[in-house]
Sequence to fold (117 residues):
Amino acid sequence: MTVRFLWHEAVPTFVECLGSLPNLHTLEIGFGENNPDTLRLKNVLQRLQLPQIKTLILPPAAHPLIEHCPNVEDVNWVVGDRTATSDDFLRSLVLIPDSKIKRLAIPLVSPANRPCK
Fold:
């Protein structure tokens, strides 16, 4: 299923919806023009736990979701055509106690190998 919406308008409703989907095991957040605001996402996620999520595919701005998926096994960081660093993303991985991650895909992006626009 693909759902499209503006993050600044829909983050709270989206998070509430996630909490009501016990059979959801894969969560992919696409890389579009309206990426999640990291601080707003952190605030909205405070009480959410998604133990059923096994696979996460996310842009850098959505890294706070990792901390709320304690059983995630497969993490893919989608950079798209934007310059990004992995610092916050990797910090989120460290915050998972007893991590069950088996596969981690983080593309390396530097000024020298940044995708062309």
Notes: The helical segments are 7-19, 38-45, 87-94. The first helix runs from residue 7 to 19.
